[in-house]
Amino acid sequence: MKAAVLYRAGETPQYANFAEPIPSEHEQIIEIKAASIKNLDKARAKGTHYDKHENYPVIVGVDGVGVLADGTRVYAGSATGMMSEKALINKHWYVPIPNELDDVTAAALPNPAISAWLSLAYKGKLKAGDTVLILGATGITGKLAVQIARHLGAGRIIAIGRNQRALDDLSADATISLNQPDDDVKQAIKAEAAKSPFDVVIDYLWGKPAELLLGTLAGHDLNATVDHITRYVQVGEMAGPAINLPASILRSTAIELTGAGGGSVSQEIIVKIQTEILPEVFKLAAEGKLSIDTLAIPLKDVAEAWQQDAQGKRVVITM
Questions:
Q1: Domains delineated in the chain
Q2: How many C-alpha atoms does 65 have within 13 Å on its Cβ side?
Q3: 147 burial type by CB count under 10 A (0-12 exposed, 13-18 middle, 19+ buried)
Q4: In this predicted model, what pLDDT tens digit does every residue of 55-106 receive, in sequence order?
Q5: CA 20 to 30 Å from 136, out of 90, 211, 273, 292?
Q6: Global model pTM greater than 0.85
Q7: Rounded-to-integer distance, Cα 185 and Cα 179, Å
Q8: Rounded to the nearest 5 degrees, what angle is found at the Cα of 105, between the Cα atoms of 101 and 109?
Q9: CB neighbours of 185 closer than 8 A, spacing ≥ 6?
């Protein structure tokens, strides 16, 4: 069969022949239709992720959309790679896809949508009517976070990012551009906090933007009382892996700082990904209430797709 094959760490996957999978008693074969290229896939291919590939050659891609032997169309993951014509999946772990939802969208949604959902609902403990600020709202996951926050009942959403066109297209109640002087960014944050103190902050950037935001919150008395707590959830590090965080900020503000990632979610919540979260994500997308920008590229062009700058779109390999 044809597949996206990685021959050694750090190289680019190639379109090549690969042996067809043979299922064990706990596995079944799925005929793949689409699989997205994610930061996780690239990190594993580079050998920089803790869950890196051990033996080569391997098929890349941790998840995808396909058809089971009985014709059921599902989303699933596989430890042996999904960017191929066929793959092996667990007999008991898959999520059916609504007929109204196309393969490309279904393949693109799970990774960023799950991240946004867990960050908002479980780490951020979003409640109906809460004011949510999303730092890095113009990225793939950030844009979904705005939509999911609205679905979960956020009363007010403030989006911060650099891509002005993307900011303009968001369904946020207010936007703040990072393409302006730091003092202007701080003043804009203060103005929005004065309207309604931030209940939840989802941060996809970290680095300097996080320093600006945290410093502004520390100097703004509307957010510096024990009567109102800002739940700050650190998710990504697109603007840098580290920040300068003075101890006084945490002492002088009612900010709960936490992180959202694979190592911070309980097994109880992980189970809900299959039974509750993904079914709801697919349902919303099928109803046109959740969207993601995609760029579909055929499997034979996987090497070019791997290097593709999709400019805010999720690249999806189609079989």
A1: 2-109+293-318 (3.90.180.10), 112-264 (3.40.50.720)
A2: 25
A3: buried
A4: 899 999 999 999 999 999 999 999 899 999 999 999 999 999 999 999 999 9
A5: 273
A6: yes
A7: 9
A8: 110
A9: 160, 176, 177, 178, 212, 216
